[in-house]
Specification:
It contains four helices and no strands. By secondary structure, it is mainly alpha-helical. The protein starts with a helix and ends in a 6-residue tail after the last helix. 24% of the residues are buried.
Length: 123
């Protein structure tokens, strides 16, 4: 298996594992205590991460299109995937703390979209 595909698999499996643990903990009724007064702050942080990641991906997409070497494309792609993982993991944190799984689901979709926007090398 090529290194780029291994990196993508590791990113995705880490997010899925965190989601699985969150699902199990929430289902077992052992959710961590979370003060609802902090929910506003948590959601603003999550929105900020979404915005940061989208801006990062837009810039990276332009850089990838103008990159001259395969190594440069691969480096920029890994940064784009990590940006997508950040959104998915933040969604997992929101789900873990508040019980709202929507953020995790949308984050997972966003991660897969970064895999499509920044494909692995086909060497």
């Amino acid at each position: 298996m090529k290194p780029a595909r291994l990196i993508r698999a590791a990113l995705l499996l880490g997010v899925l594992l965190f989601g699985g643990v969150t699902w199990y903990v929430r289902r077992a009724g052992e959710a961590p205590p979370f003060d609802p007064a902090n929910a506003t702050t948590l959601l603003w942080v999550a929105r900020g991460i979404w915005g940061f990641s989208m801006a990062t991906c837009l810039v990276l997409f332009g850089l990838v299109r103008s990159a001259r070497t395969a190594a440069r494309v691969q480096s920029l792609s890994v940064i784009g995937w990590a940006s997508g993982e950040l959104v998915a993991m933040m969604g997992g944190v929101v789900w873990f703390l508040t019980g709202n799984s929507d953020w995790y689901a949308f984050g997972l979709v966003y991660l897969v979209l970064t895999f499509l926007a920044f494909p692995a090398a086909r060497e």
